[in-house]
Amino acid sequence: MDNKIFCPQCGSPAAAGTKFCATCGAQLPAAAPAPQQAAPQQAAAPQQAQQPQTPNDTYAQARQTPRANPAAAQAQPAATPAAQPVPAADGTPKAGGNWVADHKNILIIGCAAIVVIIALIVILVNIFKYTKIEAKDLIKVDFKGIDGSGTATAELNAYPSYMYLDTGDIKSALSDLDYDDVMEDFDEDDLDALGSLMGGSSSKDAKETVSKYLSLDNKTLKKAYDNDDMSEIKKMRKALLKTDDKDNYKITAKLSKSKGLKNGDKVKVTVKYPESSLKDKNIKIINTEFEVEVKGLQKGTKIDPFDGIDVSFSGFDGNGSASVNYTYKDWSDAVSYDYDYSSELKNGDSYEVTVSFYYDLTKSGDKAYFKYDDKYYVVDAKDLSDDNTLTKTYTVEGLKERSEIDPFEGISFEYSGALPFVKPSYVDSESVKSELKDKVYYTVDCPDYLGEDGEFTVTCEPYYSLSEDGYTLKGADADGNAKKTFKISEIKGVPSYVTKDNAEATHEFYKDQLDEKVKEAQEGLIGQSYSWLTNAEGDIEEATLDYSSTYVAFTKDTKYDYSTVNRIYWLYKVSFKTDEGDEAAFYYLFYTSDITVTEDGSYTDPEKIYISSTTVKNMEAFNEDYVEGYEDDFTTEKAAS
């Protein structure tokens, strides 16, 4: 039979030599040694009949035996056996001797208690491992405006996200330094700059006003998180500063009411946050609903900026002017008025007066307010523009009627080019009626060069002086301007480019310029050898130049491309005698280009042309070089007599 021992704590059996109970973990006693026979010299004590030993008997014996010295127990004299449990009908000892069975309910209750305790420990560990942050310590609620029309905003009380960049940002550099030491090293100008960076405007703003959990100051952060590990702190702060794809913070706050507020109102703030990302960093935001009281809204005096404004109109219809006057008020120096100073008003026009504010105007619900001379003034904001101005519209009336005058009657034009490539440039001022001179402005709209069938538009815009004189343009549009379309074929005095039909007269028209050129050429021939052009040897002693004929080269283009349209050739025959007695002749060719003529026979102003010259051997050479040589681009013909 195996030698077994039983746990003194729970009664479970275990093999001899086992040190700890496999069921409850209690330390087990050493195995009891085998029974010894009494010494021969001792008389055997009378014994009662022995009952079969059971495991519980061994367990009972083990509990009565001191654990420290089982051997000593063996040496003790045998005691009178204790009463044995009465066997059951099946031979098993009765329950009165089984400790486990006797204490079964107690064991079940104890195990349940252990499970509950373990669960509580797990819950407490999970609770106390989080950094708990009050929602109100993260959110900034601002109240602005006028009492009764106030507004409220709520947001994460943090700097803009870029202020928390790890590198390349002055704020990040400051976050690695002792904040108070840095502030002590700054002079007033430095503090002003830092205040600006932090969203303030002066040195007093340089002290942080953001949540202590979102600070840039290490001391503040350590105190807030009750932690000295800045690496861990910054990870938690970063979790709170999570942004979406639009760079907006994910921790948001919603207000139960944000408009029409008055001092003393109660507003509920509900905070939402990314729970999973904060949980990863052992952060729990608690009390995500809290209430704030509205305060700090200003008391103000309501005003109408147009109160006392007087607008009157005078002058002629279409050239009327406005006069704006106003009565001085306590707040008049805080505003300015802007209005139309022109003198082109007509009856029925809308005339606007706009008021601007010299001081910052802040919207507050359907009102807006500004501070001036330590007082707050309130205006209606429903018509307030984006640039914080108010505008009032008046209707023009009471202007006198004017007389009409036709601005296009009798006018003529100055031109660029000539037919068939003509472009009216502007109206000849000498052709304008005296009543209109210096009182209107003409614009000629002609985008391209025209032929005889071309059309163009002229616009006449009146100056204010015309209306002052009581005139209006005939056919004027709503802006007071008059327009008319002209046809080239219906206009007198349109110039044309000279052709073979009217070129002969150019020799006489430019006679003075040609005579001067001929004289220069004649003087230049004396003493020169032209053996390369003629067969005559020697230097010229005598030479004469006689007019021969006029030729015109006219472009073959059908559309003006800013190249030469015509070229006028004046041919002079040169007869000369050399110092060696030879006589010969050649031609001097004088030419110019783009010559025009008007209906009255006036050619291009001589002061505006330039005459060039060259030589040709004879008329055959002229035909070859100038007539045939340019036939792809020009048609060259002799001028008609």
Protein traits:
single chain; 641 residues; alpha+beta; 5-stranded antiparallel β-sheet; 4-stranded mixed β-sheet; 14 helices; 32 strands; elongated
Low-confidence stretches: 36-97, 198-206
Mean pLDDT level = 82
Helix content: 10-25%
- Overall number of domains: 5
Q: State the distance separating the first and last CA atoms.
A: 161 Å
Shape: elongated
Strand adjacency order, main sheet: 31-29-28-27-32
* Structural class label: alpha+beta
In short:
It contains 14 helices and 32 strands.
Q: What do these coordinates show?
A:
The protein has 641 residues and is of the alpha+beta class. It has 5 domains: 1-97, no CATH class; 133-293, no CATH class; 301-395, no CATH class; 403-490, no CATH class; 496-638. 20% of the residues lie in helices and 29% in strands. The protein has a 5-stranded antiparallel sheet, with helices on one face. A hairpin with a 6-residue loop joins strand 1 (4-6) and strand 2 (13-15). The longest helix is centred in the first third of the chain and has 25 residues, at 104-128. The N and C termini lie far apart (161 Å).
